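Lab notebook, bench 4. We co-purified these components, and the gel suggests they stay together. Before we commit to crystallization screens, I want a quick structural picture of the whole thing.
Request: model the full complex, all chains together.
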Amino acid sequence: MTATTCFHCGLLNADNPFVLTVLGEPRSFCCLGCQAAAQTIVDTGLGEYYRFHQPDQQPVDTALSEKQQQALRVYDRDDVQNEFTTLSSDGSKSALFLIEGISCSACTWLIEKRLQQLPGVAFVAMNAATHRLSIQWRPADIQLSDIVKTLLLIGYRAAPYLPDEAEQVRQRTQRQFILRLGVAGIGMMQAMMNAVALYSGDIGQVHERWLWWTSLVLTLPVILISAWPFFTAAGHALKGRQLSMDVSVSIAILSAFLASVWATVTGQGEVFYESVNMFTFFLVLSRFLEFRARTLSSTQGNALVRVLPATCSLVEGGSLREISIRDLLDGQVIRLLPGETSPCDGTVVRGQSEFDESSFSGEFKGSRKNIGDPILAGTINQVQSIDLRVSHVATGSAVNFLQQLVDRASAEKPRIAELADQGSRQFIWSTLLAALLIGLVWLWYDPERAFWVVISVLVVTCPCALSLATPTALAQAMAQLKKQGFVITRGYVLERLAQLTEVAFDKTGTLTEGRFDLSEFTRCPDADRYGLSEAHLKYICGALEQYSEHAMASALKPLAQEFSSAALPIEAVEAISGAGIQGQSAQGLWRLGSAVFTNFRAQESASEGTRLYLTCNGDLMAKLRLTDRLRSTVAPLFGNLAALQIRTHVLTGDSNTVAETRLRAAGLSGQFIPGCRPEDKLRWVEQRAANPLAVVGDGLNDAPFLAGAAVSIAMLEATDLTKTQADVLLFTNDLQVIAKAIRLARRTKRIIRQNLIWALLYNLLALPIAALGLVAPWQAAIGMSVSSLIVVGNASRLRK
Amino acid sequence: MDILLLLIPVTLVLLAIAGLLFGWSVRNGQYDDLDSPAQRILFDDDEHMVPKPTQNSDQNRDQNRDKHD
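Here is the predicted assembly.
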C-alpha cells in the first residue's frame, strides 16, 4: 500500500491524509472513519485482516452521533424484531442481515471473527457472495443494536433482511446451475476416460461395444440434468416461432447424442459421447458465470422498502403510539424525531425543522420547514422533532411519482439484448438447409452413406464455437470487471459500453463525496484582541457544533478533538434553526452561522460552498468555508475518458454554477447544466437518444435519468430505486474504473469479433469437406471440440 | 480384458454414489458461498482450535463453525 492511497479503503488520499501507526508502520488514511476502523480492527487483535484484504475504495463512515445511536436502538424493540427475527427454543434469536461494504473474502473473515468475540453471540456465518450475514445471539447477553454498532465501527453497514420471492428463485437457480455443472463435469471426465480407451486402437470389437454402452449410461444424466434446460428453452423459443441460440445448441447436442445412441444400438458408425459431455459442460459453465455476474446486484437488496422506516409514532390525543406505516391513514398526525425518515407526504402542523431532501433534489443542504410547509416521503428530519399531518400514503406520494418516471423510461429502452441472437438465427437456418440439401444429394448418389454424411455435416458445422464465441467472452469480461468493483447487471452493457461516445454525470454525491468538508478557515484581525490562536478558534467551532445534527456540523465536530489540551468550556449551547448556533464561554457570547445570524455584512460575491462566520460579542473572529469535495479520482477519470475520445457532461440539481470552473479544470469536456430537476434530466437524455450515452448517478432524483440512458451506472450509495434501474453498480469509489470498463468493453468486442470470424471460417471450410464425405464422424467431433476450445481460450485472454 | 465386466459396474456404482452425495451437498447449501471458503484457509487464526479444556466458549465456537462448514 503506497502512501498516496488509504491504508484501509485504498482510495486515493487527499493532500493531508490522516496518519496512524498500524502494525508497526505509520499508515495514511483518507478520512477519520477509515482511521478509526483500522484502530478498532488492530485493537481487537484482528490485524491479520490487512494481510489479505483487497481495499474496496469505500471510505468508512463511522461518525456515529448520539441521535444515530438512538436510531439503532430501534432494533432492540420487540415489535421491530418480530418482523425479521426468529426465536429458538433456548431463548436465543436469529436473523439475516444484509451487509454493505464487503469487498473481499478478508472482510468475511473479519466480520465473523469480530462478532465471535462479542459475548452472547452464539453463531455467525457470513456469505461473501450474497453479502448475507446469518447471526444467532442471546438477547440476555447482548442487544442487537450493539451488534450492528460493532459492525459499523469496523466499517460495515448492516440492515435486517427478509428473503423475498426473487431471492429464493436466485438461490434455487444457483443450486441448479451447480448441480448441472457438477453432473456435466463428472460425465465429461468419465466419458473422456472411455474415449481414451476407444481411440487407443488396441481394443476388440466386443470391448468397444461395452465401452460404448458405458458411455451411453454416463451421458444420460448429463443429457437429462445438465442439458435439459437448453431443450426446454429451445422448445419455448420454437413455440414462439423464434430461433434462439438454445435451438442450435439443442440441435447440436441432440443430433450428436442421438447419432451416438443409434451407433451404440446398431453397432455400427461412431460415437461422440465425450464431445456431447464436454460441449454441455462448457456451455453450462459460461451460462453459470454469466448468471453469477448478473445476479450479484440483486444481493444488494431490492425495493424501496429499505429507504423507508417500518414504523412511525402516531400522535393521538396528546400521547404517542408506535404503529406500522402500513396502518397509516390520511389525516392522521405523526411525530418525526431528528434523524427519522418521513414515511409519507404531509404538512407540518407543529414545530420547525430542516429536512434533508437530497434524495429528491440532490442537494445536501437542509431545507427549512415551518408550520404549513409540505414534507415529502423519503426526506430526513435533521434538527428537531416536528408533527406532521399525513396527506398521501403509499400511492400518489412523491416517491411514487419518481417510480412512474422510471417505469416509463425503462419501457422505452431499446431492446438490443434480443438482437444478439439474430445473427446466429440465419446461420442455423443455412446450416439446416445445407444439411438437408447435402443429405438429399447423397441419398441420390449413395444411399448407404447418406445418414453418416449428414451426421458429420451436422456435427462439424455444429454452432458450438459460434454459440460459445459471445457468451464466454462476455462472461470473462464481466468477471474481470466485477473484481474491480464494476458490476454489470444487464447482458447488453458491454456491447454498448464499447460504442459509447458520451458520459453524463450527476454532480452531488457522484463526482463529489456528498458530504461537507472545511475547505477554508481564515482568522480575522479582531481575534488578536482576545489573544486567541487559530487552533483556539477551530476548537470553539467544533465545540459549538458538538451536539448539532446539522449536515454541516459533521465537518466541524472533529475540530474540537484536534485541540483537546486547553479545553475552553463552552456552555449554554443553543441551535437556532436555519440560522446558526450560539454558546457562552469566559470570553462572552459566541455565534457561528450565516452572515445574517452573526450580523456580519457579507462582501464576497457568490462563491462555491457555504460560508459561515464566527463572532464573539459581535466581533468577527473567523470566516469558514464548507465545500463538498470533488472525489480525488475525478480528474484522472476525465483525463482517461478524453483519451478514449469520450465527451463528458455534468448535470446537477444544484443551481450554483461555481463548481463549473473546478470541473473544467479537472477536464470536463462537454456541457455543464445546473439546476436540473429529475424531469429536466430525463428530457436531456431523451434528446440525445441518438448518441450512445452513459449516465452516472446516485440519488433518487437520478433514477429516471438513469433509466432513460443507453447505459446507466449507479454509485454504491445510491438509493435502492436508483440501483434497480442501473445497468451497472459501482462497488468502489474509484471512478477511474469507468474508463477501464470502457477500454475492456472495446477489447471484448474485438475478441468477440475474432471468435465469430474464426468460428464462421471453420464452419465454411469444414462444411464442403464434410459434404464430400471426406470427414469421418470422429474427425468431425475432434474438429468441433478444437474449434470450441480455441474460442474459449481466446476469450480467457480477457482475464489479463 | 474380461475384467471390464466387473470393473465397469463397479465404476458406475461408485459414480452413482458420488453423484448422489454431490446432489445432497448442493441441496444442503454447501455450494452457496463459492468465494470465501477458498480464502479462509489462508488466515492463521486457528490458535483457538488447539484444545484448551477450560475454555468452553471456544469449543462452542468450533462446534458452531463445524455445523456451518
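Chain A touches chain B at residues 48, 52, 104-106, 108-109, 113, 116, 122-130, 171, 174-175, 178-179, 182-183, 186, 190, 204, 207, 210-211, 214, 217-218, 221 (CB under 8 Å). Worth comparing against the SEC data before the next meeting. The longest helix of chain A spans residues 165-199.
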